[in-house]
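Training component of the fellowship. As part of building independent skills, the fellow (R.M.) carried out the full modelling exercise for a liganded target. The chosen ligand was adenosine-5'-diphosphate. The inputs are recorded below so that the supervisory panel can assess the work.
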Amino acid sequence: MRPPLGIAILLAPQTENCMSTTAEKHVFQAEVNEVLALVVNSLYSHREVFLRELISNAADAIDQLNFKSLTDHSLLGDDKELRIELIRDDKAGTLTIRDNGVGMTREELIGNLGTIARSGSKKLMQSLSAEQKKDITLIGQFGVGFYSAFLVADSVTVISRKAGSAETWVWESQAKGDFEVRTGERAGRGTDVILRLKDDAKDYLNEWPVREVIGKYSDYVRWPIRMEVERGGGDEKKQEWTTLNQARALWTKSKADVTDEQHHEFYKALSHDWAEPLAWTHFKVEGTHELTGLLYIPRKAPFDLVEKRKSGVKLFVKRVFIMDDAQEIVPEWLRFLRGVVDSEDLPLNVSREILQKDATTRFIKKQVVGKTLTLLEELAAEGETEREVDGEKQKSDRFLTFWTEFGRLLKEGVYHDIDARDRLAKLLRFRSTKDDGWHGLQSYVARMPADQKAIYYVAADSLATAKSSPHIEALGKRGCEVLLLTDAIDEWIVDALRKFDDKDFVSAAKGALDLPETDEQKQAKEAKAKELAPLTERMQKALDTQVKSVRVTDRLTDSPACLVSDEHGMSARQERVLREAGQDVPQQKRILELNADHAVVKKLTGLADDAEFADWAALLHDQALLAEGAMPADPAAFARRLTALMGKA
Ligand code: ADP
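Fellow's submitted model of the complex:
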C-alpha cells in the first residue's frame, strides 16, 4: 500500500497504547487544525474528489488483502467476493464507503489517519505563503487523501476490523481539534468510512450525483464499486444492487481505448496529485516475457525530490497488486515516474528477495528505462506545442517543463546508469553563452565552428559568475560557445561523459586550453611567453605557498590573470562542493595564468621594489579568486592591499 499518510499532521495522543473500551480522546496538535482548515478551504471547489480519494484507499486495502491471501487463504474466510460498497442512508444523512479489504488495527487507525509521514511536510506547509496555500497543485503534494472526507462531512466515523483479528475499532472526528478512538462492532474484516454529510453536500445521497463522480474519477478502479439503487416505479419499485464501474484495470485496455481524460483521472487517483500528468507511456511487451506498463511523468516535482529515494511505480503480477514502490524494477534516477507495471511472468508470491535475483526483474527494468527514454525523446523532439491543460489551451514545451522540474534526476542517471548514458546525454540541457535558453549537446555540436575541436564549459555557483568568468574570455572572442554549468553535480556529469559525439568536454578553467589558432597566433604566443619568463619566475617566487606555477596564457583578453587547475585534476569548484558536503579534500595548488597584453601585467614587469611587487602579485592572485566566485584565503589582507593601492592612486 502507499506509504502512510502524505499530509503534514502531527498527533499527540493523550492516551497512547491504552486498550480501553470507553472512548479515548486524542488531541490534534495545533498544526493539524491549520492543515485541515487549509484542505477544506482550498479544495472546496473540487470537493467531489473526496470520493476518488476514499475509493482509492478502499481499493488499495483490497489489493493488500488480495496479496496477503495468496499465502494465507484463511484471511478471506467466507467473504470471498472482494468489493467496495457505497451505502446511502437518507434518514441519518450519511454516505458510507465500505470495503472488505485488509482493515486497520487500533494503532493503525491512530497512526495512519494522522501522523507526519514525510519529514519536511510540516516545514513546507509552514513556509507556504497565503497565495501558495491557494494553489491546489502545491497542496495536492501533501496527498490530502483521507482528509478530503471533511470536504463534505462535518463528522467522519471509521469502523475497521483488521483481517485475521477479532477486534473492531472506531475512529471518529469532527475535525475540531481532536478525535476519538473506541472499540466497536463490525460483521467481518474491512473498513467503513461513514460520512455525516454537511447540509450543502446532501446531494451525494442521490444516485446520480454519485454515479457521475464515479464515472468521472473511479471507472477504472479494479474492484467492483456497488451501490443499492431504486428500480421501477409505483408498486414495482424495488431496491437492487448495481455495479457502478467497469472494474477493469485501465492498463489492460488497448492503448487506443483509453482517453486522455481517463489517463488524467487514473493518474490523479494513483499519485494523489491534483494536476494532470505531463505525459505518459502505455506499453505492452510480448514474446519471451510479457508485461504491460503505464507510466506517467508528473507536471511538478515533489518538494523532496532530491532526498526522497522512493519511486511511485506499483508492481502487479497478472492483475494482482504485489507492491508499491518496486525499486527493483525502476532505477532510482527514474523516481519521478508514477504508474503501474503488470508482469505475466513473475510468480504471484514474489518477494523483494526473489525480485532481486530473478532475471525477469532485469528485463522489466530495461523495458521501464527504455520506454521512458523513448517518451522523453519524443517530448524533446516535439518542441513547443499547444495543448489543453486543466481545460485551458496552453502553449508549452513539455520537455523543458520536464527538464526544469526533473532534469537533475537525468544527471543522476548519466552518472549511475552506464547503459542509458548515451541516450541520456542527448537529453541533457545546459545554459550557454549563446543566449538565455536551454541548449542540448547535439545543437551545441551542430553550431560549432569548423576549427573548434572540443565542447567547452565553465562551472560556477551562479549563472552570472559563469557568464563573466575570465576563463572564457578568449573562447568568446574566437566565437566558441561555452556551456555554463551551475548545478553542483554538473562537473561530475561531464567527467562521466568524457565525450559527446566524439568531441571531448574541455573545462575552460583546466589545463592549457587548446584554442583553435593560426600558425602566426601560435608563434606570437610563444614569443610572449619567452619575453615574460623573468616576470613569471619572479611571481612564482612571490606566490610560492599559494600557486603551483605561473605562466602566460592566451585564455584571457580583458582580465589580467586567472587561476586554472591541472587538466585531469579536480576543479576548484569541485573541491569546494565536496568540502561543503563535509568531505575532507586537500587543497590543491593551482596555476596562475597571466594575460601578457594586459596593462597591469606590463606594469608589473617594470616594478623594481620587491615588497611592492609581492603586494601586487598577491592582489592579482586574490582578484583571480574573486572573479571565479571564490574567497581569498585572507580577505582582510586583500582589503588592506587594495586600500593601500587606492591611496596611492
Ligand atoms: P495515503 O492513502 O496517501 O497514504 P490517506 O490519508 O488517504 O493517505 O490514508 C492514510 C493511510 O490510512 C493509508 O495509507 C492506509 O494505510 C490507511 N487507510 C486509509 N483508508 C483505508 C482503508 N479503507 N482501509 C485500510 N487502510 C486505510
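The panel noted the following from the submitted structure. The first strand starts at residue 11 and ends at 13. The longest helix spans residues 359-382.
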